[in-house]
Design a protein that fits this description.
The protein has helices spanning about 165-175, 175-195, 210-225, 235-255, 260-270, and strands spanning about 10, 20-25, 35-40, 55-60, 65-75, 85-90, 95-100, 110-115, 120-125, 125-130, 140, 150-155, 155-165, 200-205, 205. It is of the alpha+beta class and about 270 residues long. The longest helix is centred in the last third of the chain and has 22 residues, at about 175-195.
C-alpha cells in the first residue's frame, strides 16, 4: 500500500550512516538482464534516538524507475522474509537510494531519512567502486516565472527544469506520483527530438547516434524495438518515428504499471 508520509521534524541521516552496497550478477544465458542485489550497512543506534523497533524502508529510484522495499527495523535491519531486495541491473549507474525510518506508532510519520544515496558496487576480486556512466535525464531548479517546468536540451542531454519558486516542488517532482505525471511526456519529446528534429543517421536499420542520443535510443530499443529506418519521405518518416516513440512510452508505462501506481497514490491522498 502506498502511504502519505509526514516529513515534519524528521532527522537527516548522514550518508555515512546508511551505506547501500550492491552486487550485480552476469546476464543469463538467454540474454535476460542481470540483477542487482543490495544490502544496507546502517549505523543508526549511536547519533540518533530512533526506537529500535522503528521500521526501515529502502526506496531505489531514478527519474525512470521506482521500487520500495521493507527492510526490517532500526535494531535489526534486514529484508522482509520472502522479499529479496533485487532489481534489474540495466541502467544501475543512474540509480539512487533513499532510506526512511518510520514511526512504529504512526506508519505515516517519518522519523529520519537519508536521500540521494549513491550505491557502492561490490566487484568480486576488485573491491568497491561507484558508477560513472551518464544518467539519461537530469533535474534542476531555476526561476521560470509562471512556468512550472520545462524540458531543456544542451550538449550533455535533456534536463527537466522545475521552477525554484517553492522548495517543495523539486522534491515532489522526484516522488513516484509526480514523476509519472511528467516523465512519459518527457520521454516521448526526447525521442522525437532525436529522430524528427536532429535527424540521426541510420546504419542499416539501426540509428548510429552517439553520446546521450545513443543512450536514449538504446534504452528505448530495449523496451520495444529499433525505430523504423527512414524511407526518404521526410513527412512519412516523422509520422513513423512519432508512432514508434508513443509505443515505447506505452510499453514503459505498462512495464512499471504506471496507472496502478498513480491511482493508488491518489486514493491514499484522498484518504489522508
Amino acid at each position: 500500500m502506498i502511504q502519505s508520509f509526514n516529513y515534519t521534524n524528521r532527522a537527516l541521516i548522514s550518508p555515512q550512516d546508511a551505506v547501500i552496497r550492491i552486487s550485480i550478477s552476469d546476464k543469463a544465458k538467454g540474454g535476460e538482464p542481470g540483477v542487482i542485489r543490495f544490502n544496507l550497512d546502517a549505523r543508526l543506534d549511536k547519533n540518533y534516538e530512533f526506537p529500535q523497533d522503528a521500521p526501515l524502508v529502502i526506496e531505489a529510484y531514478s527519474y525512470l524507475y521506482y521500487k520500495r522495499f521493507e527492510f526490517g527495523t532500526v535494531g535489526k535491519p534486514e529484508p522482509r522474509i520472502g522479499s529479496e531486495p533485487q532489481l534489474e541491473a540495466d541502467g544501475w549507474e543512474s540509480l539512487l537510494f533513499r532510506v526512511k525510518v518510520i514511526d512504529p506508532q504512526h506508519s505515516g510519520r517519518i522519523l529520519g531519512e537519508a536521500d540521494r544515496l549513491r550505491p557502492v558496487l561490490l566487484r568480486p576480486g576488485v573491491g568497491e567502486s561507484s558508477g560513472n556512466k551518464r544518467s539519461l535525464l537530469s533535474v534542476t531548479s531555476e526561476d521560470l516565472g509562471q512556468q512550472v517546468w520545462m524540458l531543456r536540451f544542451d550538449l550533455s542531454g535533456p534536463t527537466v527544469v522545475v521552477n525554484k519558486g517553492h522548495p517543495e516542488l523539486r522534491r515532489r517532482m522526484e516522488d513516484q506520483l509526480y514523476r509519472w505525471l511528467v516523465f512519459p511526456e518527457v520521454m516521448q519529446r526526447v525521442l522525437e527530438r532525436i529522430l524528427c528534429v536532429e535527424g540521426v543517421d541510420f546504419d542499416g536499420a539501426s540509428p548510429s547516434a552517439e553520446s546521450w542520443r545513443g543512450d536514449w535510443l538504446a534504452f528505448a530499443t530495449n523496451l520495444y524495438q529499433p525505430p523504423p529506418a527512414p524511407d526518404g519521405d521526410r513527412k512519412e518518416d516523422q509520422l513513423k518515428w512519432a508512432d514508434w516513440s508513443a509505443e515505447v512510452v506505452r510499453r514503459f508505462c505498462g512495464k512499471h504499471s504506471a496507472w496502478d501506481v498513480v491511482s493508488k497514490a491518489l486514493t491514499e491522498e484522498v484518504k489522508s
